[in-house]
């Protein structure tokens, strides 16, 4: 769950510049006091003056993004790392960031095959998943007394005491193991995909 | 005391793999060694193979700490070996060293001088083919030592594989690369033999039921960049089954990469007709996508089309993507008929008309038809009764079938069914089998009788008046026959040569893979007849009183490592080693 929260934090901070309530609860009270996140600075640094007929080029000065420091400096590095891997192997972030309404299903479908293959492979390598319950979906399963509610969620006609018997509607997912490389050295921890400049 | 680990290293043209056996484990088994390497700047991960690529970054391109490995820097400083080198380098080809192994066996260039990346601009700090190979091995050694601090690789039994088609000079240079990488005690093993050992190791004693006396196994190894054939015969000696490598093919620079490119060109033509112009980046990405589609169509029987997608290059991954399909018909036309056409026994690979000036560079096969190369190979030696596939290309079921059909059509009688030996991992069998061979060397298991893969000759130019435009005829004296075994020596009878002391003596040096009947001392009257190929010259300088003439005989020795050494021996017992003169070439 912590990982999910970390990913959620990441996207919420990135897009809405606020922390989700669950995360804010985890922070010490004084840390939140008076610490509104600074606005994102989107202007490019001024371009250098043109020299002798060379057309003006945009400087490659990066956009500054101090807001990410909070997300990446304290234990959430793994989330950023996983995103960087999913982008590198499967271009997941490009996909999520793109406006899919503009394309036909066929166009999206074509691209998704590749993205799916890359991301699936990366996930299998770094966070292989397995079902929480091994029974087939829609099979009858028994829930014993003392079950862990974080592993099994009961829905429907929840009355009485366990053991319960019911139909398995979703087998759940759990991470079998996490194998993330040691954090990348010498890299800006907020960058999940570097900009690419091709020299002619 | 023997080393704790037996380690098989497959130093491949496009991928390297490492397998090992811990002989002190309770039940020693062959395991693959995952190699730590840079996969993104600053990011190190383990991978089952190490792509054989070396990237030489520009100064400001990456920060030094992004190139750091858990054990420090790469040998030679700021350089990248492995997955990052391959994945980043294809976008910066002038800084990427690839196919170093093919260069290592290319006698047309000086293999000790810094020539790679080939035709790179002057500001790139180039490396020699030997140095590039040394760096791949040094990376493997460093990753091993990092994982096994108490058992450094230099102190283990290391079996290093080479293509069977490598001549003794290329083998010598491979040993040299290993020595440069801090591995002075490696033993060489031919890749097709290693694949066969892998099969033997997996089959256990059951192999005696699958193969019988008289069987001849074709090892058909088609990798990313090279194709390599060997024949291994099963014979009998004193009631025991004996396995013997009886023939090896020539080095053919033709493999899966050529096939992916051929498909990509086909698809590009179609996309351009639809109005999509592909740049170099998109084309490379197209080749990659074609490979995936090819693997689907060749291995999954019921699919008739596979999508080929080139994703958008910018952040618009869907908007910029180009999509088309690869049809089964395309794959069959381009790959099966283009690279594996139906071939009659006796067909020879087509040779292009010789152009006066050939551009230097790798001698890629002129004929893409692997079956025609196979026909030439089988025609020069003997027919196979069984086949063992190896190499990533052979994962394609359709391609395997075509080879089997072709071999079947060459059989003497239609009842003879070709045996297909299965159960090896086409990508990892060579490393796996090399580790198994390490145990065989310790007396556990069946050993393939091999010896030298070619016969070797010294050229003797006959004295005749020079005629302009006509090369003087050259005779060749066999100094080491085909199949001369490791650890043996041979004295070349008959010829006594007069060498002048104090001056360098240089000999023409030749090899043949198609003259197994020659023995030491056999003289081939016309060395230029075609089945002898000239290698680099061998030379030595005899120390002593200048001007003196010393009569010597020749002596050859195949080392335990698997290389050939030649000596001039004086009657008094003094001997001088002849060195391969890799630097002098035309």
Plain-language structure description:
- The complex is a heterodimer of chains A (200) and B (586).
- Chain A is mainly α.
- Chain A is built from seven helices and four strands; from the N terminus they run H-H-H-H-H-H-H-E-E-E-E.
- Chain A has a two-stranded antiparallel ribbon with strand order 1-4. In chain A, strands 2-3 form a two-stranded antiparallel sheet.
- Chain A starts with a helix and ends in a 25-residue tail after the last strand.
- Residues 28-54 and 63-72 of chain A have low confidence and may be disordered.
- With 586 residues, chain B is α+β, with helices and mostly antiparallel strands.
- In chain B, 25% of the residues lie in helices and 27% in strands.
- In chain B, the strands form six sheets. In chain B, strands 20, 21, 22, 23, 24, 25, 26, 27, 28, 29 and 30 form an eleven-stranded antiparallel beta sheet that branches.
- In chain B, a hairpin with a 5-residue loop joins strand 28 and strand 29.
- Residues 353-358 of chain B have low confidence and may be disordered.
- The chains are: A mainly alpha (200), B alpha+beta (586).
- At the A-B interface, helix 6 and helix 7 of A face strand 5 and helix 8 of B.
Specify the structural class of chain A: mainly alpha
**β content of chain A, as a range?**
5-15%
* Unreliable stretches covering 5 or more consecutive residues of chain B: 353-358
Biggest chain pair contact, residues each?
A-B, 25 and 29 residues
- The level 1 CATH classification of one domain in chain B is Alpha Beta
Oligomer: heterodimer
Low-confidence stretches of chain A: 28-54, 63-72
Strand order, largest beta sheet of chain A: 1-4
SSE string of chain A, helices as H and strands as E: HHHHHHHEEEE
Q: Say which CATH homologous superfamily of one domain in chain B is assigned.
A: ATPase, nucleotide binding domain
- How many strand segments of chain B? 30
What's the CATH topology label of one domain in chain B? Nucleotidyltransferase, domain 5
- The percent of residues in helical segments of chain A reads 25-40%
**Helical region count of chain B?**
12
SS-based class of chain B: alpha+beta
Number of discrete domains of chain A: 2
Report how far apart the termini of chain B are: 47 Å
Mind describing the biggest β-sheet of chain B? 11 strands, antiparallel
The outline of chain A comes out as elongated
